[in-house]
Amino acid sequence: MGFLTFAVDWLKSPQQWSGPDGIPIRVLQHLEYTVLSLLIAAAIALPIGMLIGHVNRGGFAAINTANVWRAIPTLGLLILMVVLLGFSPLTWLIPLVVLAIPAILVNTYEGIAGVDPDLKDAARGMGMTQWQVLWRVEVPVAVPLIMLGLRTAAIFVVATATIAAEIGLGGLGRYIIDGLAANNYGEVAGGAAVIVVLALAVQVIFVGLRRLVVPAGLREQVRASR
Amino acid sequence: MVWSWIPQNWTLIWQYTLDNALLGLVPPLIGLIIAVPAGIACVARRWLYAPVLSLTSAIYALPSLALFVVLIDYTGLGNLTVIIPLSLFSLCILIPAVVDGLRGVDDSVRQAATAMGFTQLRRLVQVELPLAVPVIIAGMRVAVVSSISLASVGQLIGVSSLGYFFIDGLQRSFPTEIYVGIALTIALALICDLILVSVRVVLTPWTRGRRAQARPFVVPVPPPVGAR
Predict the structure, then answer these.
(1) In the prediction, which pLDDT does B220 show?
(2) CB within 8 Å of A4: residues ≥ 6 apart
(3) What is the model's pLDDT at position B225?
(4) What is the pLDDT of residues A200-214, one digit of tens each?
C-alpha cells in the first residue's frame, strides 16, 4: 500500500465530507487563516516597503533583517506563543503575520527602489508630485515584484497554518496532527493530499491575480524575462 | 527563564543542535549538487527553463509537514524523510540562482574566453561558474537558513532536531526550553550564513573591497522586472 492508496481510501469515505471536522469546513478554516494573516501583513508591510523604496534608504538594513527573520523556526514561535499566551486568535495570528511580513516588505522595497531612475526623472520632469510619482509610476512598475512578495508570503502562511494544528488551530493540519497522534496513517495521508491540492490552488490563484494586476505595458517584459 | 536548566541539559542540547545542523546542511548540499547541472542545462536549452521553473515553484509551495508525512510511507521515520523534502526546497531555490548567476555573466567576458581558445567546457568551469558564484552563494544562504529553521518541523513526525525542545516545552509548559530552542536555531542559522559569506569572499577574490551584494528573497519565479 502506498501513500496514494491510503489517501484515496480515506478521501472516498463520505464521513470526511461533512460535519464540523469535514474537509469543506477545514478547507474554509485554512483559507480564513491564510487570507486574514495575509491582509494584516500586507497592510503593515506594503506601506513601509513603498516608503523605504521611494526614499531609497534603509533598504540594506531591511534586507538583512529579513534574512535573519527567515531563521526564526515557525514551530518554535507558535509553541512559544501558546505557552506564554494560552490559546486565543492572537496566538496564531501574530506568528503568521510576523512570518508573512518580510517577504512582502523586501519585495516591495526591491520593486520600488529598482524602478529605472530615468523613468522617475521623466515623471518628475512632467511635473508629477512625489505622491504621483509613487502611485502612477513606481507602484505600477513594481507590481510584478510586489505580487511575488505576496505569493511568497502566502506560501509561508499556508505552510505555517498547517503546522499550527500542533497548538490546536483548526484547518487542514488537524488531519495530519490528529492522524499521527492516533496512529491513523489514512487520515494523515488524506489530509496531506488535500493540503497539497490547496497549496497548489493558492499558487494558481496568485498566477491569475498577477495576470490581472500587472499593467499592460509591463506584460511583454515579464514574459520576455521568463 | 530558568537559567540553571541549560547547564543541566548540556549534552541533550549539544546532541539536538548537531542533529539540527545535519538536517539543515545536508539538504542544501544535495540541492546544490543537482542544481548546478540542472541550471547549466536550463541555460544551454532556453526552452527548458520555463517548465522547470513552473515545477519548482509548485514544489516550493507545498508545506513541509505535508511532504514529510507523504514520505513516511516510503522512507519511514528516519532522517531521510526530512532530508528529501528539504533537498527539494533547496533545489527550488538553487536552480533559479544558478541560472541567474550564469546568465548574469557579461557577454564580452564570454567572448574573450572563446577568443582565447577556451573550449565550451573549460569556459564554463573556469570562467562562467566562478563568476556565478556570488549569486549561487546568495541562493545557498537562503537554502541553508530555511533548511535549518524548517528542520524543527521534522520533530512533529519524531525526527530529532532542536524541535525536540519545542514539543517538550509545549508538553511541560516550560518556556525556557522553547527559548533555548529558538535561540539555538537562529544562532546555528547565523553561523552557517557567516560561513557561506566567508566562502564567497574566498572563492571570489576579485570582488573584495566592493560593497557586499545584498539580494532579496531568492524565490523560484521569473526574475523581477526593473530590479537588479
Answers:
(1) 41
(2) A189, A193
(3) 32
(4) 999 899 989 888 888
Q: Tens of pLDDT along A32-52?
A: 999 999 999 999 999 999 999
ipTM for this model: 0.83
pLDDT of residue B95: 95
d(CA B152, nearest CA chain A) in Å: 7
**Cβ neighbours of B142 in A, within 8 Å:** 67, 70
Question: Given a cut of 50, is residue A165 above it in pLDDT?
Answer: yes
Do A159 and B60 make contact, defined as CB atoms within 8 angstroms? no
Whole-angstrom Cα distance, residue B23 to residue B29? Answer: 11
Quote the CA–CA distance of A37 and A157 in Å, as a whole number.
7
* Among candidate residues A163, A182, A202, A200, the one with its CA nearest the CA of residue A10: A182
Q: Check if the beta carbon of residue A171 is closer than 8 Å to that of residue A30.
A: yes
Distance CA B24, CA B26 (A): 6
Answer whether A218's CB lies under 8 Å from A141's CB: yes
DSSP for A28-72 reads HHHHHHHHHHHHHHHHHHHHHHHHHHHHT-SHHHHHHHHHHHTTS
Residue-level pLDDT at B189: 93
- Take residue B38 and report the three cell numbers written for it: 540542472
Contacts of A82 in chain B (CB under 8 A): 170
Residue count of chain A? 226
* Dihedral-angle region of residue B119 (phi above 0 means left; psi in -120 to 50 means alpha; beta otherwise): beta
- Domains present along chain B, CATH in parentheses: 5-207 (1.10.3720.10)
Residues of B with Cβ-Cβ distance to A192 under 8 angstroms: 65-67, 69-70
Residue A180, C-alpha cell as written in the block: 499521527
| Per-residue model confidence (pLDDT) at position B158 | 87
pTM, 2 dp: 0.85
Identity at A178, one-letter amino acid code:
D
User: Under a CB-based contact definition with an 8 Å cutoff, are residues B90 and B171 in contact?
Assistant: no
3-state secondary structure of B45: coil
List, for chain B, all residue ranges whose pLDDT scores fall below the cut of 50: 212, 214-228
- The sign of the torsion formed by the CA atoms of A46, A48, A51, A56 equals negative
Structural domains of chain A sorted by starting position, each given as residue range(s) with its CATH number in brackets = 3-12+23-224 (1.10.3720.10)
Per-residue pLDDT, B227: 29
